[in-house]
Amino acid sequence: MTRLTLLNGLPSPIGDTSTVMKRRRRRVLLRRGLIWTKRRDLFPRKSEMQREQDTSIWEKKKMQQFQTTIQELRDANLALKNENDHLKDLIIKHIPQMKEDIASLAGRCAATSKQLQPQNTVAAAEPQKKQPGDDDDDGGGDGGNNNKIHGERTEAPDNRSPRDNSTDGQSAPDTTSGTAMVRTLLLGTFPLETLLQSNLNGGKPKRGDGEQLEALDPGKKAAIIEATMKKWPHTTKGQLGTAINNKLTELRARQKQTKIIDIY
DNA sequence: TCTGGCAGACACGGTCGCAC
DNA sequence: GTGCGACCGTGTCTGCCAGA
Fold this sequence. Notes:
The chain is mainly alpha-helical. The chain has helices at residues 2-9, 17-32, 46-112, 122-129, 137-153, 162-168, 178-189, 192-196, 218-231, 237-263, and strands at residues 198-199, 201-203, 213-215.
């Protein structure tokens, strides 16, 4: 009794009843994984397992996403290959024909250039530039343009330099850069009149107060760019587009200057 | 809505070859 | 050597578009 009294009177080394109960309940909750503890390694908990499960699901979803992305890239690659084949076909079928037209017309122009009278306007030279079989834009463009260039330059035929020859007689692959090649192909592909009335994508010039311009033939344009990029892989499409526009701007400026001279 | 990247449009200057 | 004409490259401005 005394002992009991003594024991009961002393503070319990493990705390009072309520404290013990609280600790016991906490241990139960810890075992059940319903509360968090810093000593995570003591008891395996459902939350941890759940986390592992979530991680696993997330990894699976990530893999699925990767696979989807890979599949999309494969599809895109296939589409690009198909487009490339199409462009190759275009180049193989059209560029040689263009070159033949250019060569034949260059020879014809060389033979007849001395007979041409000096002409101030490109339009005046136009009728002589049409070739039989030029009804197609490709063939017509080739010959017409070359002739037009010749006609334009008949103003000063004696002043022709090798660079001039690169435009008229020299083949595009002989050019020294991608931009030079694209300029040469441009002149050999489209009639000068078309070039004077066109810019790369059509529309009004973004700068200045120019008139409405037509877009160049997308097929020929793509063929020119593709052929150029094939020979000069380091050049970008943007650079070639800039080169084309440079040439077109230059031709328009030259024409405008010629008209001004005609007025005075 | 803002911003950065890209491409088009244009102007300008350098280079080259030819004629004088 | 100088002038001229053509070609070519580069810089700048502008507009469009996708992404943050």
